[in-house]
Amino acid sequence: MEPTSASPTGPSSRPLHVAEARSNILAEIVTIQEQYRQHRDVGELWQHLLTSVLRCSGCEVGFIGELVWNDIGIPNLETRASTVPGSLPPDLGLIISEVIARSDDVMVAPEAGAGFLGMPLVVADRILGVVGLAGPPYVITGETAEMLRPLVGVVAAIVESITNATQRDAVTERLRRNLGFLEAVVGNASYGVIVVDPEGTIELANEAALALLGTSSQALVGDSIGGVMSPRAVDWVLSQIVASSVTDPITRRTVQMLSHSGIPFRADVTVGTFTLAEDRAAAVLTFRDIEAELLAQATALRSADLLGFTPDLVVWSDASGAIEFINAGGRVLTGLSDVDGMSIEDLFPPWAVERFGREIIPELGATGSWIGEMALRDHGGEEIPVSMTCLFRHEGDNTYYALLARDLREHQHLELLQHAFVSTVSHELRTPLTGILGYLEMFVSGDLGEVAPEQKLALDVMSRNGDRLLELVDKLLQVASIGETAIRDPEPVRIASVLEHARASWSDQFVGSISTDTESVSAVEVSGSAAELATVFSGLFENAVKFSPNGGDILVSAKVVDSSIMIEVLDTGIGIPPADVDRVFDRFFRASNAREMESQGAGLGLAIARAIVRKHGGEITVTSAPEEGTLVRVILPLGQQGLTYREGGDRNGESPGGR
Amino acid sequence: MARVLVVDDDPDVRQLVEMKLRLDGIETLTATNGQEALDVLATNDVDLVVLDLMMPVMDGIETCRRIREAEDMADLPVIMLTAKAQASDIQIGFSTGATDYVVKPFSPRELLSRVRGSLARAGVR
C-alpha cells in the first residue's frame, strides 16, 4: 500500500477507522525513520516524533519526555517535545509517574472531560521515556494504546539512538579533552614513558624515554622491551599485564636498564596496565635514571659512616652558627650528647669565643678557612687544647660553618715528657763529663804533677774528645726541640745584637775575616727566643768558618724587606756539591766534600737552624757553588706576625688575659 | 785564709772542686745537700758557698733562699754550680740571690777565677 503523506490534524478530532489508522501508522513509521536519517537538529527530531504520535492518535495534546538518571540514580523525566507550554498538568503528571513506576501503559478515560494515555518508551526492557496524550474520550479508548504500539516502538528505538548518539558525542568530547591532557602530560614528562603490548613490543615512547635511552622513535618503537632491560625485568613487566593472576602485584622496582649505546643505568620503574581495544591489555612503564641519586646516597652513607669513626671533632652549623650536626668523635671529645639549641660559640671557653669573633670570623669572611691552635670547652667546663680548622662556605642555600678539631693534649703531654726527658738526660750526661773534663784540665795544666810529652799528647786527645762529647750533649737538647711547634714565652729580640755576639765568638777562631753590616737593622726586633736565635746564627757562623779552611771573607748582612728581616751569611769556602744542596737541612746529613775534609760535625747544625727559624715563622735557604762558596739566607717576620704560640695559658695553667 | 763551703751530692764533683781550690790555698768544707750545708754554716764561718742546684733533701734554690733570709749570711757570696743550662734556669738562679752561675761541666780554672773574683769583691783575701 502506498504510504500517504501525513494528513494535518483538524481543529476537531474524530474517531478513526482501524484500517485507516493502521495505514496511517505504517506511513508515519516510514516518515519518522526518514526524518531520523536526515535530521540535523535533535530538537526538531523530537518535535517530529511528537507530531507523528499526535497525528496517528488523533489527539491534539501530548508530549514526549526522556528519562534521565542523575548521579545518585534518581530518574528525572525531561520534556523533549510538548504541546503544552510550561509544566504538565498535575493529572498528567501523576499518570506519567504511574507509567514510569509500572513501566506500562496507563489510561484514564473518564466519562466526561479529557482522557489521558501514557505509554512508556521501552527498548530491551529499559524504559527510556514516556509519551503522554490527552484527548476527548472517543479518541482515547481502550484500543488506542494497542493501535499506537508499533509507532511507539519505533519512537522508542529512535529515542534510544538519539540518547546513544548524544552520549557518544559527550564521551567523544571528553575523551578528546582527556587525550589532549594526557598527551601534554606524557609528552612533557621528565621521566620516560613506554607502552608495551602483551608480547613486550614497544608501541609508544615519549621524548624523555628516547632521551634517556639515547635512541630515536624509529629505532625504539616496534622493538622488544628486552632490548632495554634484562629478561627478568621483562618478565616482571609482562606479568603485570596478566595482573588478574597476581594477588599482590609489585608495581614499582629498581631495574637495570640499558641505553642504546650499551651503557647500563639503574632506573626507578613503575608499571601500570590498561586495556587496549578488543580486551587486549597493555603495560605502561614510567622510568627515571637514578644512578646519580644512588651514587649520592652511597656517598652520603659512606661519609656518615667514616665521620662516625674519626676521633676528631666534626661539627657544622647553619649560617647563624646554630649547630646542625656533631659527629661521634666530637661528642666523645666534648662530652656532649645533645646539641639542640647550641651554637658553635658554645663549644669554646670565653676567651676563645672572643678570639673567634675578633680573629677567626674576619679570616673566614676573607678566605673561607682558618687553621690554627684553639681550645674547646667540654661539658664540665674544662679546656681542651685543639688543632682546629674552621670553614665557612657560602653557596646560596648551602651556607654553613664547619669545625674540625683534633685533641692536642696527648701531643702536648708527649712534648712535655720529651722535653723533660731530654732535659734530664742531658743533665745526667753533663755530670760525668764534669768529672772527666775537670780533671783532664787540671792534668794538662800541671796541677797534678809534671806531665811528660807522651802523656801530654794523650791528655790532649782526651780533652778534645771530651769537648766533642759535650758539644753533642748540647746539640742533643736542641735536636729534641726540633719537634716543637711553638715558642714558649716569646720576647722581643734584636737581631743586630745576636749577629754581633755570634761574630764576636767566632772571629777568634777564624783565620780570615768576618764582617757584619747591620747598621740598617740596628733597632729591628723580631719576636721569639733570643737563645734559640743565637743558636741559629752561631751555627751558621760555625759552618762558614769550618768550611772555609783557607780563610777568606765571611760577609754577613741584614736588611729589612717588606715586613721581614733578611739576613745573609756569605762565605768563600768549599761550597756544597749540587747533588747535596737539597739535603743539607736533613738531620745527620753531611755533604760529600765536608766528609772528605775530615772535619768534625754531627750534621745537625742546619737541621736545628731550620727548625728554629720555622718556629719563628720564617724560612732559611741555601745556595752554593763548589769551590766558590755558600750563601745562607734567613728571613724572619718582624714583630709578632707569623709566630705560632700557644693560647690558653702558661705552664702554670693560668688563663691569659687577652692573647 | 779564705774558707769555701762546697755543696754537691756528687762526691766526684766535690773532690774536684776541693782539689782545685786547695791547690790555690783556699780552705774547704763540704756538704752533700742543702740541709747539711745550713748546718755547717750555722757552726762555721765561711766566706763563700759553691752550691749545686739538684740535690736531695733540700735543693740549691731553697738553700740559697734560706741563706739570703738569714741576717748574718745575707751578703754571703753564693756561686751556683749546675748542669741545668737553660736560660730560664739561670734566671731563676739569679732571682733567688745567687752571686754567680757556673754551668757543668766547667773548667776548674774558670771556677777558681770566679771564686777568687767573688771573694775579692767581698773583701776577703
What does this structure look like?
The complex is a heterodimer of chains A (659) and B (125). Chain A has 659 residues and is α+β, with helices and mostly antiparallel strands. Chain A has helices spanning 18-38, 42-57, 90-102, 144-188, 207-213, 217-220, 231-241, 291-309, 328-334, 350-367, 409-444, 453-480, 495-507, 530-546, 578-581, 592-596, 605-615; strands spanning 61-69, 75-82, 106-108, 115-123, 126-135, 192-196, 202-205, 252-258, 264-275, 281-289, 313-317, 323-326, 369-377, 383-395, 398-407, 491-494, 513-517, 525-528, 553-561, 564-571, 619-625, 629-637. In chain A, helix 1 (18-38) runs parallel beside helix 4. The longest helix of chain A is centred in the first third of the chain and has 45 residues, at 144-188. Helix content of chain B is 45%, strand content 19%. Chain B contains five helices and five strands, in the order βαβαβαβαβα. Chain B has helices spanning 11-23, 34-43, 60-69, 87-95, 108-121; strands at residues 3-7, 27-31, 48-52, 78-82, 100-103. Chain B has a five-stranded parallel β-sheet, with helices on both faces. The interface between A and B is medium-sized, with 21 and 19 residues.
